[in-house]
Amino acid sequence: RKRKGVSTPSFPDINSQTSSTEPGLLPGETVVREGKAAILFPSANEVFYNPVQEFNRDLTCAVITEFAREQLAQRGIRILVPGEKDRVVVRLSEEKNGTEDQEASEQPEKEQQKEEEDDKKEFITQGLRVLEGLAASGLRSVRFALEVPGLKSITANDYSAKAAALISRNAQHNNVSHILQASQRDASMVMYEARGKKERYDVIDLDPYGSPSPFLDAAVQAVSEGGLLCITCTDMAVMAGNSGETCYSKYGSMSIKSRYCHEMALRIILHSLDQRAAVYQRYIEPLLSVSVDFYIRVFVRVKTGQAVVKNSASKHALLYNCVGCGAFHLQRMGKKMSQGKHMKYSAATGPPVGPNCEHCRQRHQLGGPIWAEPIHDMKFVQKVLGAVSVNPTRFRTSKRIEGVLSMVTEELQDVPLYYVLDHLSSTVHCNTPPMLQFRSALLHAGYRVSLSHACKNAVKTDAPAGVLWDIIRCWEKSNPVKRERLSETSPAHRILSAEPALQACFEIREDANPQSRKRHLTRFQENPQANWGPKARAKAGWVILLMLFC
């Protein structure tokens, strides 16, 4: 049965996106098509293409487009993508045959052509420089060249000689050799050599197979002032608590098993990025952070400022998580206080909890540090959402992008992490209350509440854990649990033994149902195919392909 807000994706089979009969192919070559790109592979048997990752690449094109629009607007340049009608057309990477030409409305044709040529000359010197550090076949970079306006140059780098040759071949095949250059280097060395202010890249995209941690130190130095870092992590088992010690060695944060593990993973990578940037008197501003399918993806702006870096300790927090009922508390690493025109910094005081949980008397786990500030920039997210919504034919995954970003805009930005409704009810072994009634009870009690894009049953609220358990206690009174079956030392027995201090009202409120849910947007995705996921590592000789297509 199809669930509301959950999409049943219609990803085409890999065979429907490949071709071995296209003119100009060498013997044994196969073409994979995505967006406007047509990517060559040397053999059909070597093709490793995961259509689930198309959402990642579509979202990245949308984000970089809006970032370029912001950056170039400061230089007096306006840009347009096909489907938009209200800005001057600027397309450095347009095809030579001119099949992609778009006309701006309400301008004579000759005047429009002259304005485009003038803007293009200015564009070549003022466009953005992009680095894809782990480019594999070059699909992502080719799509940037074809679909993202405002770019001066794109460097598609890979350590593999075969991959670098394939990137060059794909650049030629897609007529973007004038903007896309292949590079065969160690990604870290490419970035370390670009640390000078004049050599830095405006956008750096890292999408590795597994952890990006070996590249983060170089990345935070090689991105320009106010530049954009786009980072993917697919090592979710490590970041979600299966191997906390490994997570600490890679990211400087202890992951723990929890229901909010996907948002915690986002906050772990943001913590790691900010910590590494702070070494060089730089800091991050998260623009968009999403947990999708089997990976997480963050887009952050990097800036420099010694005074702002002093705030770093107060932006990160340790996490206390109860192993019995799942109640959690955050402890900031530092404290800052305003004293007139100056700020005073000191160590934080704590801990915020006792030796045992006040609700179920179980012990606490200690996790983190994690990023405790907002993980999105709402103004920027609204710009990306608006651009995708008014131009739905630009991407094949536009509906899902719109759904995910709509949920992001509804999230409580100042509330880290979340509870999961079915976990709350299962802790006390009672029936799960409907989401609208539970959200209404929180609103009636005077608290704020939202969903989370990272989990379909998430309850993100500023209400303390005690209020949540009071609401569950009130619900249990009308949906009683057989108390005689509960162990006296179990979290369920200890929680239900206490009388609720709050009398919950479950009358449904209109504002309990968010707009994304009312509009039945594509918010969450069901499994697109059997045995889907990050796939196995590519076989020897073509390991590099998997770095992009997993």
Automatic annotation (TrEMBL):
Residue ranges for the region (Disordered) are 1-27, 93-121
Entry keyword annotation includes tRNA processing: yes
Which residues lie in coiled coils? none
Q: What is its EC number?
A: 2.1.1.216
Provide the alphabetized UniProt keywords: Methyltransferase, RNA-binding, S-adenosyl-L-methionine, Transferase, tRNA processing, tRNA-binding
The family database entries (Gene3D superfamilies) matched by this protein are listed as: N2,N2-dimethylguanosine tRNA methyltransferase, C-terminal domain (3.30.56.70), Vaccinia Virus protein VP39 (3.40.50.150)
This entry's Gene Ontology molecular function terms read: tRNA (guanine(26)-N2)-dimethyltransferase activity; tRNA binding
The similarity annotation says:
Belongs to the class I-like SAM-binding methyltransferase superfamily. Trm1 family.
Question: Per its record, how is this protein called by name?
Answer: tRNA (guanine(26)-N(2))-dimethyltransferase
Q: Which organism is it from?
A: Sinocyclocheilus rhinocerous
Recite the lineage of the species.
Eukaryota, Metazoa, Chordata, Craniata, Vertebrata
